[in-house]
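Let us practice reading a record.
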Amino acid sequence: MADDGPGILRMLWRILGREQDVMDAYQDCFCKLASLAPDREPRNARAYAYRTASNIAIELIRVRQRRAAHWDRVVRQHEQRNEQEPQQGADSGDQDRLREAIAQLPAHLRSVVVLRDLSRLPYEQVGRTLGIDPATARVYRRHAVVKLAELLGAKE
């Protein structure tokens, strides 16, 4: 990293041209290199580092292009959704109470609620993310819902 870092940074600047993208790609590159298993060390570490950095930069450019191509449609859909569903003041109080109740949950239950209900991830992915079985994630979510109902004063 000490020897090739400056050269990789220059290459990323030429490819990406934006500081945030350059720093993200640079970090991703060295994280990937650091996470290589000892038995998978490349024969030419310098070439591997440059190739990894360039692949990451190219992928960032592709993501940027995909976002640009779809951005107008996303903005239009968001505007249409806001026109169809006006914001209601009464909901904001309920949302604040729910946020406070979620914050009071134990960490393992809160994590499942955030990943499953707020991020809308499937139980399999929630389990992989937290290092638990999908069935355990379901049980944790049920416990969280019961606890939230208690905290919010709901009846069984």
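A brief commentary: The mean pLDDT is 86.
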